[in-house]
Amino acid sequence: MLGLRPTAAEPVRPVDGPLTARDAARAVETELLRVLDENLRRARDTDPVFARDVAERVAALVRRGGKRLRTAFAWCGWRAAGGSGCAAQVVRTGAALELVQACALVHDDLMDGSPLRRGAPAVHVEFARMHEAARMAGPAEAFATSAAVLAGDLALAWADDLLTETALGSPHGQLLHREWQAMRGEMVAGQYRDIRAQATGASGVEDAVVVATLKSALYTVERPLALGARLAGADPAVLEALRSAGRCAGLAFQLRDDLLGTFGDPALTGKPADDDLRTRKLTYLLAVGLRLAEASGDREAADVLAPRGPSASDDGVQRMRAVLERTGARAVVESKIEELAAASLRHFHRTGAEQAVRREFEALVERASGAGPECTGEAA
């Protein structure tokens, strides 16, 4: 456990009654506003320039939100493990997950060179523009890179503080914190495997699955489910079923994100739809496309998708999209998403959760995997 004490800030109001996953996701918005206001006050007390330039940018990214799926999955894990009554600790854990997500987005956008996030300039892009507008000394890119690293670190610090405060107030705090520790390590490992795959020109389906699992699937679904279950004191059998359900749903989520990152509408997703293809980033979609092209002897398609080729032009991106359709890679990934989503539901049913909770989990998996009506928006 980290040696931190709970703050004297206004406590979270108890969340009682017939709470649903959507209620939990809405409740986390209120909690996030409280946590962000508290941390911004601390930042201003530390240094007003740091608060204005860094802390306020982190807060703005968090406020722009996503679907708050991680909070909803944490609630499902809590309920499946027998949680009932006041859900304040689940809501606080959900808020911590949203903050660690902000850290991941800032660092991921920086490493990938992505210009857009949640419909606005990525944090490193904002810092570069600030550098240029203020006519600061030195190269804007170096300044923006350093500042964005610090912004992501700050989001992680806020997340750790909140999770630790929650753990200190829970009878299951030690196990909750261990779950959190494992999740953080997995996120870093996944990010490293991602950039290493890019540097080495890795193109295998197995490598793509490892990256997708470590970098996204675990902290998007599996760990949130387990964190919620830990708060309810889950028994080993329930926890194992939730982990299996989360692993499958998390992979389905990431495969949908791969498709949105290739064929999606930026006006709906809030991020570019050509970055992965332009940089030939290793994704399951690209790896499957290359494997299918090589298996069929389609050398032209294999050359178009080759991982060590130069950055693709606009025309090259269009050719890659066409090849992914022609080889059947897009259809294969769609089929895999359906398979994973179905497996996730089967595993979740093994928890013995109430029918109402099972229905809510099913709806969440539909949203995360792209089968539901809300799937066309931002995946992250």
UniProtKB/TrEMBL annotation:
Cofactors that this protein relies on: Mg(2+)
Enzyme class per UniProt: transferase
Gene3D superfamilies, A to Z: Farnesyl Diphosphate Synthase
Molecular function as annotated in GO: (2E,6E)-farnesyl diphosphate synthase activity; metal ion binding
InterPro entries, sorted: Isoprenoid_synthase_dom_sf, Polyprenyl_synt, Polyprenyl_synt_CS
CDD domains reported in the protein's UniProt record: Trans_IPPS_HT
Keywords in alphabetical order: Isoprene biosynthesis, Magnesium, Metal-binding, Transferase
UniProt xrefs under Pfam families: polyprenyl_synt
Biological process according to GO: isoprenoid biosynthetic process
Keyword Metal-binding in annotation: yes
Assigned EC number: 2.5.1.10
Domain of life: Bacteria
Family, as annotated: Belongs to the FPP/GGPP synthase family.
Protein name per UniProt: (2E,6E)-farnesyl diphosphate synthase
Organism field: Streptomyces fradiae ATCC 10745 = DSM 40063
